[in-house]
Amino acid sequence: MNRLTTSGAGFDLARYPEDPRDPFRAWDAADEYLLRRLEGDDGAEPVDLSGAVAVVGDRWGALSTALAAHRPVQITDSYLAQRATLANLERNGVAPDAVRLLSARDTPPERVDVLLVRVPKSLALLEDQLHRLAPAVHAGTVVIGTGMVKEIHTSTLRLFERIIGPTRTSLAVKKARLIFSTPAPGAARTPSPWPHRYELPGGIGPVSGRTVINHAGIFCAERLDIGTRFFLGHLPERRGPERVVDLGCGNGVVGLSAALANPEATVTFVDESYQAVASAEETFRANTGPDARAEFLVGDGLSGVAPASVDLVLNNPPFHSHQAVTDAAARTMFHGARAALRPGGELWVVGNRHLGYHTRLRRIFGNCETVAGDPKFVVLRAVRR
Description:
Blueprint (H helix, E strand, L loop, with lengths): L1 E4 L4 E4 L15 H11 L13 E4 L5 H5 L6 E4 L2 H13 L8 E4 L8 E7 L4 H11 L3 E12 L5 H10 L3 E3 L6 E6 L14 E4 L11 E4 L11 H7 L10 E5 L5 H9 L4 E6 L2 H14 L5 E6 L11 E6 L4 E2 L2 E2 L2 H13 E12 L4 H9 L3 E5 L3 E7 L2
Parallel strand pairs: 3-4, 3-6, 4-5, 6-7, 12-13, 12-15, 13-14, 15-18
Antiparallel strand pairs: 1-2, 7-9, 8-9, 10-11, 16-17, 18-20, 19-20
C-alpha cells in the first residue's frame, strides 16, 4: 500500500487483491498529472467539478477515490478495478456510494459535464467507450484523457478527434501526457464497429469453422491467437456429466470446444472482464443448441465457485497487468483452481514456455505433467490429489 498525495489531501491506496509481494502501486504519473490539472496546479484554471463527472478506465480506483467528494460515475471493463475502488474508498473512510460503479456493458450516463479517460491498453476498448459516451457529451463538456507517453499514439489521438472533436496533447511530465478534446456534438460520426465476428480456421477440433463474437477490448478480438490455437489442438477428451471451467475465458472459444466435444458437460465461463464474458456468452449461444448447459460469471478468478465442485479447469492465464509483466494473475488462478477442483480433478494450462508455470504448479499441486509443447508454448496438466 502507498499514499497518493494531492494538493488538498492524501489517500492510502492499494491494488486488488492486495498482495505484499506485488511491487506495483495503485496509481502512476498519469493519474497524478490528471489530478494536478484538475486542481489547477499547472497555472491553468481549476476544472469545475460541480456537474456530472465520469471517470473511464480507472485502473485501481485511484482517480475515483481522489475525486469521491464530487460523486463521480466510474466506468470500467474490469471487475478487479471495481473491487479495488470499493476497497480504496473503505480504506480512506469514504462511503461506497460516493462513486457510482458502472461496467463497460452498462448504459452510460445521459449527460457528462467532465469526462476523464484513463487511456486503456486496448485501442478497440477506447474506441468503443468513446462511441458509447459521445451522446452524453455536450459543447461545454471538459474532456481530458491521461496516460503514459508509451500508451498514447497517433492512433489514440485520432480516435478522440474523430469521435469527440478537435484534440491536442500536453507536454510530457514524468513520462505522462494529457489529452484535451473539445467536443463537437453536431459532428457526423460513424457507428461503433463493435462487436466483431470472425470464422475460426480449420484443424482446431470441434470449434473449427465456428463463428466467434468479440466485443471490444478482449485479447485478440480480431483473430485467434496462436497460444489458444495450440491449446485447442491438445485439450483433453472427456465424457460424461462433468463440470468444466474456462478460467480467464476471453471470447470463450476454449470452453465452447469443451462443450461441443462433451455435450453432457456444464461449462462455466469466468473472466474479470465484462466484455469478455459477454463475448463468451454470445459465442456460446451462437454455436450451441437450446439444451447446452453453461454459466457465465464476471469475477475474481474462481472465488465465486464452490470449493471441490469442479472436474476440469482450462486456463490460458494472462501475464500482463496493463503495461506490467507479472504472474500475479496466474498465481491467483492456479490457487483458485486447486480449491475449486474435486479430488482427482485436473487443471490444464497453456502458456509461453519461458514463463515457467510448471514450477509454480508443482508448488501448488505437488505435481505437473507436460502434455504437449513446441518451441514457444507448453500445455501443462496438474491433478488435485
